[in-house]
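User: Study the shape:
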Amino acid sequence: MSDTVFRETTAEPRTQSVPLSHVSLELGHLYMEDFEAGPERLSEHFSQVRPWADAVRGMAAGTGKRARVSTCFLIDDYFTRFSTPAELVPVLLAEAERHGLTIDYLARESGCAVADGIGIAEVVEHRLVESPPPGSDGSRPPVREIGWLANGERTPGVESLEAMANVPSWRPPSETAARRHSVFMDVELWDDLDQRRTWSCPFLAAVWQLTRMGLLRYRGEPVLRPKSWPGKDFPHSWDDLPPLIQLNVSAAPFCAYRTYSVLPSRFLPVEHAVRVILGQVEVDPVAFGQIAERSAREGVSVPDGVADRAGYVFYPGP
């Protein structure tokens, strides 16, 4: 009897690859209150971003290859909404241009939660793999039950300590793989109120990073793919604007081997949380392998760790 098993080739989704730039450069990730403050606030932001954007481009060009650098900007329309795309986006683009910057791709933060009918944040949630700290007893509920993710061992509860004989009344938290002293972080990924889940800013920012790195797939297909938007007319509702649009027809690919983000310093704790999340996501292995193969063929060095592919500049200011 033959052991051969026949399968329909269409029954197994193939993991599609994505075009890649060398660098995805984020020119900003601002909240609605920043836009509410007027064009002056945007101008101040881009004046701070410009020199660092030049530095990132120079660093990419320094590899001796013709660098492919794409730029992007993320607007928060998930937690609060202000004005309309028709009123806000032209002002944003004009202020960027005033400082010599071109925004190639524009994304809405709500698209990191759901885009094109796909729950992208939920896709990432299902790929979370907690790194248990050494010596942990497994008494803490898993992340998918409580919505909190740590980079180490939390301080035990009083009840747990009282149940243990000969232990002090308090024990500090500890960071996994700390360098002598711990920098412990416990990240809230979502909350569920009134039977509605709200994803946290760090979790959506982690989704944003994974998307820019070209590492997210749903049933083998890339998610949050840019839609061409060459015109200057924008809709009067955020819901009518695609989650990710390509504004510059000659832009390099949206996804990239590495990402850089130039942000105000108030984003530092958020991005620290993003790195904690990225370090505990099991990305699509085929997509990961495609990027490794492509980068090797191009002679481009890409870190093995996903979190290490994200670079930042935090400028002082609000």
